[in-house]
Amino acid sequence: MKLTLSQIQDQNKSQSADHSRNFDFLAESLDKKGFDVETLISKVQDLQIAIPSWALGTGGTRFGRFSGGGEPASLIQKIQDVGILHALNQSSNAVSLHIPWDIPSDYQAIKDSASEVGIGFDAVNSNTFQNQANQEHSYKFGSLANSETAVRDLAVEHNKQVIEIGEKLGSKALTIWLADGSSFPGQHSHRKALENTHLSLQEIYKIVPEDWKLLIEYKPYEPNFYSTVIQDWGTSFLLANKLGNKAYTLVDLGHHLPNTNIEQIVATLMTEGKLGGFHFNDSKYGDDDLTVGSIKPYQLFLIFHELVKGFSETNNPPLSWMIDASHNLKDPMEDLIQSVQAIKLAYAQALLIDSKSLESAQDIHDVAGAQEILQDAYRTDLRPLLAEAMRRSCGAIDPIKAFRSLKVRETLIKERGLKSIASGL
Ligand code: LRH
Ligand code: MN
User: Long-range pairs for 310-313 at CB < 8 Å and ≥24 separation?
Assistant: First the structure.
């Protein structure tokens, strides 16, 4: 299924009167406050969020999986679905692949299908947390950290293959997340595991192309429940520093213990120029992979506050903006549309923060004043500005409404059936 420009513009017709009224009212009030609305719109248009290939189907837990039908059963179909999302919100111009779940059989066909719908390839993800069929050595007790050289070598080789696949598709980054760790005290040596991981990463780093990034993703627990070798931002940062300029820390919002101050981690990493990218999602308890901004929208706003300031005050390089979610209850594509919306809304609100006044309030310890400045931005409803940004980019004023009234899911079920299963989590 492919959405045409005229289909989307038809959708916008019925909403344009209400939209123009809401946008004009907002634009006038922003203008009165001295904001350059055109600049805000172009910055919001420029922010593109990559879609994870493994989140286009229904996720599940060990307690069950409830598929909604019409899922992409091939890489080409996954690319078509990202194309539909991008047609609707003009804000998802890339897909992040996971290997071996998405090994291309025909590279040219894959690249052609992607360029046909205006998307590219963001970071490629390696997978040494699952054994592949007839795999010689098991990753049960770890991969890059494993005490057995043969297992480490196998995992290093896999990452080299993932880089080769990414190079053929035009990707410019490799994301490594390691499940490696232990579930019981005494199971392994923490220091040996970290040293093995460093040595293995050094082998991989040697073949990371000069214009690529190596993104090191951390996570405190799961699937191991006593220790994880790369458990927190500090360990990822330590390894990235040891490896060199091409290595950075990737922040998955769900990979923090409860009440962790993630925006402070972002500020610290940007100060060191070592923030490489994000896996956006939201969570209440653990790595819940819920819709972005659905549980802690204020935290997301504070993270974008650090990002906006960080980009104007540090030399941290551009980031890989990616979602990493799993959909147990919602339609995967509606969930992803909502997540992209929430990310762009938090960014737009952060652009409204009067940083000069905030700085003066901070300098004189005007705590309440500083909070007023932050929350004035956060409490500004910028949804008409997002809608206008998408409308001007030939996207839908209301992507969810368009997704539903264009009967995208119904059509995909007709084309693919109710039983089609997407590879991934
Ligand atoms: C681990 C993780 C990692 C991916 C996987 C799909 O929890 O966040 O980024 O490899 O999810
Ligand atoms: Mn992740």
Answer: 310/266, 310/267, 310/270, 310/271, 310/275, 311/270, 312/355
Mean pLDDT of 386-396: 98
The CA–CA distances, whole Å, from 210 to 52, 173, 202 equal 24, 10, 14
Q: What element of type H or E holds 323?
A: strand 320-323
CB 224 within 8 A of CB 265: no
Which residues are placed with Cβ below 5 angstroms of ligand 2, an ion?
252, 279, 324
Which structure tokens are listed for 63?
């307690």
Q: Are 322 and 122 in contact (CB under 8 A)?
A: yes
Give, using CA atoms, the residue closest to atom 7 of ligand 1. 287
Which atom of ligand 1 is closest in space to residue 252's alpha carbon? 8
DSSP 220: S
Using one digit for the tens of pLDDT, what is the confidence trace for 280-329? 999 999 999 999 999 999 999 999 999 999 999 999 999 999 999 999 99
Contact 318, 37 (CB under 8 A): no
Answer yes or no: are the C-beta atoms of 180 and 197 closer than 8 Å: yes
pLDDT-derived band of residue 31, with 50, 70 and 90 as boundaries? Answer: very high
Is 195's pLDDT higher than 70? yes
Q: What is the DSSP secondary-structure string of 304-322?
A: HHHHHHHHHHS-PPPPEEE
- How far separated are the first and last CA of the chain, in Å rounded? 24
For ligand 1, atom 3, which residue shows the shortest CA distance? Answer: 177
Q: 425 falls in which pLDDT band (50, 70, 90)?
A: low
**What's the whole-number average pLDDT of the chain?**
97
Ligand 1 center to residue 224 CA distance, Å? 13
Contact 178, 230 (CB under 8 A): yes
Does residue 177 have its Cβ closer than 6 Å to ligand 1? yes
> Per residue, what are the HEC states of 47-91?
CCCEEEHHHCCECCECCECCCCCCCCCCHHHHHHHHHHHHHHHCC
Asked if omega into 100 is within 30° of 0 (cis), the reply is yes
Radius of gyration of the chain (CA): 22
pLDDT of residue 147: 98
Gap between the Cα atoms of 49 and 90, Å rounded: 10
Please indicate, yes or no, whether the overall pTM of this predicted structure exceeds 0.90. Answer: yes
Q: Which of 221, 376, 228, 234 is nearest to 305 (CA)?
A: 376
Mean predicted confidence (pLDDT) in 17-42: 98
- What are the tokens at 12? 């916008």
